[in-house]
Amino acid sequence: MKRTLSSQVPKSIGKEVLVEGWIHKIRKLGGINFLVIRDRSGLVQAIVGGEEAIEKLKDLTTETVVKIIGNVVKEDRAPGGAEIHVTTVEVLSPVKEDLPVEINKKDLNVNLDTLFDWRPITLRAPKQRAIFKVQAEILSAWRDFFKENDFTEINTPKIVEAGAETGGAEMFEIKYFKKKAFLAQSPQLYKEIMAGVFERVFETAYAYRAEPHSTSRHINEYLSLDMEMGFIDSWMDLINIHQELIKFILESLKKNAKAEFELLGATLPEYVKIPVIKLREAQEILEKEYGEKCVGEPDLEPRHEKQICEYSNKKWGTEFIFITHYPSKKRPFYTMDDPESPEETLSFDLLFRGLEVTTGSQRIHRYEDHLEKMRKRGMSTKGFEDYLNVFKYGMPPHGGFCQGLERLTARFLELDNVKEASLFPRDMNRLRP
Amino acid sequence: MKRTLSSQVPKSIGKEVLVEGWIHKIRKLGGINFLVIRDRSGLVQAIVGGEEAIEKLKDLTTETVVKIIGNVVKEDRAPGGAEIHVTTVEVLSPVKEDLPVEINKKDLNVNLDTLFDWRPITLRAPKQRAIFKVQAEILSAWRDFFKENDFTEINTPKIVEAGAETGGAEMFEIKYFKKKAFLAQSPQLYKEIMAGVFERVFETAYAYRAEPHSTSRHINEYLSLDMEMGFIDSWMDLINIHQELIKFILESLKKNAKAEFELLGATLPEYVKIPVIKLREAQEILEKEYGEKCVGEPDLEPRHEKQICEYSNKKWGTEFIFITHYPSKKRPFYTMDDPESPEETLSFDLLFRGLEVTTGSQRIHRYEDHLEKMRKRGMSTKGFEDYLNVFKYGMPPHGGFCQGLERLTARFLELDNVKEASLFPRDMNRLRP
């Protein structure tokens, strides 16, 4: 007999089905046992009445893996409008110890440490599963969008000799045979090299930051969604394709993750063209509207990011906002300065619901321009030879951006802590499970 | 004026176009310059005749990035049947040093060290690009197949406290703040945990092996394609879905990568149902057909893998073959032994064109069965607590397999060395670029 998924049971009224899954709930009432069985597709109610079957269930607890056979009966009070009247029960896999966390309540109501310490169990709770269903959907949509736009997927090394950004600072050190190596903090150098090969490339892979602090906005191992695009006419090409990307992701989520957003009580935004304003303009708004004396500061504070998103929502009807033209001294050396205002760069962040979810820019593409900028910054080229080398051999005008998948997921689902959007988060104090 | 891709130029005969790309070839003949321009879509021929334009080209070398404008003219002798008569040339990015490798010949004709030392340049050669176009297609098809089969994509940590397979041996060590950690050699533990959450999961991410040898079959950082599937009836469910996967990948390559296979002179196999034989049977064939005295050995030697694939091709018309039932002592402890023959396991490898490209098995899913097997092997449970823990809380019968993307690509394209299928390979002696 072939397995029927729980979501398909209501389509089999009057028929016998075989269902496999976990006992999500069990309730004994008189001589009858009410079970709720959970499988990958959802939940289904099952009624066990026979003596033999009840005997088998006697000592079983939730999370026991069972195979049941029974007849599907219309029952308006059951989820999906049907339930199974069980004839046989078989235990596929028992539970050996008391569950550390009850996962069949509406909410888990545990603190973050418990949530992560018992990840193999807490992830089975419907709301936790929903978070990672949405995450898988965002990731899939992200890749599909770039494939449809003629980008080539690349896989670049995470074991590197030095960092493109900082040359070793805030990077995890590895013993690589007899040498010292580091975990890549970004695929920056490699995606630029590959823009010289395929013009348009993307990569979805882990990046590592050895930042020794534990905040609700950071994790030390995160999935970096990276794109790089050659032959741009200006940095606005990057903003434009990013607008299209957000639209595409929103449409995919609407189509494929509506149930998860509902379960989690999160609002899926409608696409509205995202406003693009300079950092300076944002600061003027913050001063005028919120009394924040921040004009001329090199970056926005976390509370400013919240305020400007709130403002964007009020004024333009979207919780997204592009902030552009960050000062040159606050952006990595490879960022192109604005020829019309050399203290500023052709760079941008995308903020969403109060948090930066994207960083991007046009890059310098001529070798001499790199040397000149490094000279002006008083930077040595030492340690950056590999990075600089490729610019000797014809690199097109290019730029790109990156997003953190966990941050993006957390903002879409309005989670308090970015770690909640990581299956097995890594931070200063957490290395397992 | 909007950019036209080189592949679209033949559709614009009689019109003016703007093309951007690299000078792939340049040849001066009398007062005329013949250029071949390369962009992401291919190559196009361009003729420069005007004095001013020729002056601009005077000192230019191949790989210079240019923007040209000109009229498209029918020309049967040009690739695509059209060429551009250039009116203006603009240099977007010059070449500053002599190219270390000529990349515009049919073949590169360089040794592997040169190939990898100059990766930013050698990857631009059409045949090198084709390898990674095929690789991107395999990766995309691999994910699409599992998504269509109701698998959920997961992202599991690569920074781990201990190894699921060996508990630390042959793993790269990381300084993780004040602790010692390792780079994951496989997502084994995590994908099993996640089969307990979503039943069907897949992951495409790097895995790391600190094997201190340099062969044509190994790299130390490789992209591991992992799947795990709950509620299997038997290990044959895994073989069956793997058959479908291979069929799906072959169809995708036929549809989307035909040109690349042709350019590389590689044969794309037709799908034929892949034979499934036990190791013991394979050894008997090797003895009978090739005079190899190997019956009873715990594994196949590299030359045996070549011979058995050759045999499969002759006998069954496919260069793929599943070898099953490897001896228990040669497989990891979590592999399920065959209840009918406990010295053997419910495990399999897929061989393709002489090389193992997949390893898989049904896993043990009951806690006591794990303890019993570890006891029988004389293994301590120390270091495996996290792995074992999840089996206390109801794990379904499950199994899975993994493939190395680079190996798979190398066998499809009949490359001599698996490193040729890695953009920036890492081995004992190579940590850059």
From TrEMBL, chains A, B:
What GO molecular functions are on record for this protein?
A: aspartate-tRNA ligase activity; aspartate-tRNA(Asn) ligase activity; ATP binding; RNA binding
Q: Where in the cell is it found?
A: Cytoplasm
An annotated GO cellular component:
aminoacyl-tRNA synthetase multienzyme complex
Q: Provide a GO biological process annotation.
A: aspartyl-tRNA aminoacylation
> Which residue numbers mark the site Important for tRNA non-discrimination?
79
Q: Which residues bind L-aspartate?
A: 165, 209, 359, 363
Protein name per UniProt: Aspartate--tRNA(Asp/Asn) ligase
Q: Lineage of the source organism? A: Bacteria, Bacteria division CPR2
